[in-house]
Write a structure and sequence with these properties.
about 180 residues, elongated, disordered N terminus, alpha/beta
Length: about 180
């Protein structure tokens, strides 16, 4: 997998993907930031989950690199809180104290990867690139759906009625072999 972020043509600096790092270890946050910046990514660091929640999320493809063991709320519990708050950031967990049940719980809840410390730089880069691409696709899909809704809302009542009939007819059409 490539370690260079994929940018859309004509991308402005604000469209550069961003990686949020939440870990209480300042030296690890700094090392990860250097690694991720070396491949052209923007990085924001946070020492705790509440600190992350006080920040503003960028309107560009992004992901969250999250430590399992944090002061206060655990990374796994924070993952649940984000989901309940309808914040859909791809999450890459990292831990020095992981076990199989913990990793299964994280992955079942939608984590992209679960890396044990110390991890290889390339493993982190691969996970981050996969997470950013997944978030980019999600954002594109949500944008297309929003456009479709806007077009539908612009139809007259009669146009909506006709569209409903056409759609129903398509759904009832036998599939050709």
């Amino acid at each position: 997998m490539s370690t260079r972020p994929i940018q859309r043509s004509g991308a402005t600096p604000d469209e550069t993907p961003i990686v949020y790092i939440v870990d209480d270890d300042a030296s690890l946050r700094s090392a990860l930031s250097s690694l991720l910046r070396s491949v052209g990514l923007r990085v924001q660091q946070f020492g705790s989950a509440p600190e992350f929640l006080q920040g503003k999320l960028a309107e560009t493809a992004s992901c969250l690199v999250l430590d399992i063991r944090l002061p206060g709320v655990s990374g796994l519990d924070f993952q649940s809180e984000l989901a309940k708050a309808n914040i859909h950031l791809p999450i890459i967990f990292m831990t020095g104290h992981g076990d199989i049940p913990m990793s299964v719980r994280a992955m079942k809840a939608g984590a992209i990867d679960f890396l044990t410390k110390p991890f290889r730089d390339q493993d982190m880069l691969d996970a981050v690139m996969m997470a950013i691409e997944r978030d980019r696709k999600r954002r594109d899909s949500e944008g297309a759906l929003s456009d479709l809704r806007a077009h539908f809302e612009s139809l007259t009542p009669r146009e909506r009625e006709v569209m409903g009939l056409v759609t129903a007819g398509l759904m009832n059409k036998p599939k050709s072999l």
